[in-house]
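anyone seen this seq b4? input:
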Amino acid sequence: MTPAARLQAAIEVLDEVIASARDDGPPADTIVTRYFKQRRYAGSKDRRAVRELVFRAIRRSAQRPQSGRAAVLGLVEDEPGLAEMFGQPRGPEPIIVGEVASPGDVIPEWIRPELSTLVGVEEWDALLQRAPLDLRVNVARASREEMLSQLESATATSLSPWGVRLPADSRIDDHPAFAGGLIEVQDEGSQLIALACEPDEGERILDLCAGAGGKSLALAAAAPGAAILATDSNRARLSKLAPRAQRSGARIETQLLSPPRELEELAEWRDATDVVLVDAPCSGSGTWRRNPEGRWRLTPDRLERVIATQQRLLAIAAELVKPGGHLVYAVCSLLSREGAGQIERFLAHHSSWISEELPIAGGRSDGTGRLLTPGHDRTDGFFVARLKRAC
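predicted toks r here
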């Protein structure tokens, strides 16, 4: 592919990404992969160049662009040399005088008042910088020192005792340590949420919004003798846990839930659970450096819906925790109403519960919890709080 053809391909991919963000379809990475599966003539350098153009355009635009062409015209404003490719064979059509380019910005204006006050303007650029590849060592079967010696360019993470960090774009899916279940891909911030649960042998631990089970696996590695139940209402996501658990040697039960009947379906765990982890659905604003088009998917209505879901899940979790047990609440969000605001509301309606200091390094105090941010902690953005039910 010529440079001009690569630029046209980026426009076509961006058109699909924009439509997918509007219609809540697959993420940009999936769309890029699918695009080139249908175009086998493109070589690895072509795929890499187009992908880089696509994600530069996505990171540049806080608001969803009108079209892929508008997004790329925005890139032209920052990189004037790209204009020479318009009008070339197999390239984009020539630029028309007066064509509107997508404006460049980091955070959509309507979201800015929702941000935690800890996320100042000086941290905004870090929200979109490329993230490293973080791994969690399966400490039930290996030590971090062993993995550091086996993984090229690996360094120990500073906050999680289980973490190993590799440069962005590193691949480990074909590494023997991954195939053997000795490491899992997991951001350091996500590892800290599992640490905040303080899992112990013999405890009953319920991961209420387990998804594909990353935090359940971390809990099982830290406390192999704990009874862990991973639940979710999304069958496709939860089904990914079983093969991961088998690979890592973890004992984790799973249960598919059917809202709004969760408490009925979890009757045996009601008032009987040592730790309930609620890693709730959220805006995803803490993961924009990995999924920058997430800014294009978030709307005021969607934010209100996830906030309502978080409140409902916290109420369910409160019924499951036994007297003296703990509830750990987390969201991969930097928005106050999803984090500190949710816990403030919960405690106002559950006066017998108390907040506890979190047993984790990093982050900054945010209400009764802690907020991890890419700029301050070099992790994804997470709010996490630990609450105890009165005996």
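The chain has a mean pLDDT of 96. Residues 3-105 form one domain. kinda curious what u guys think
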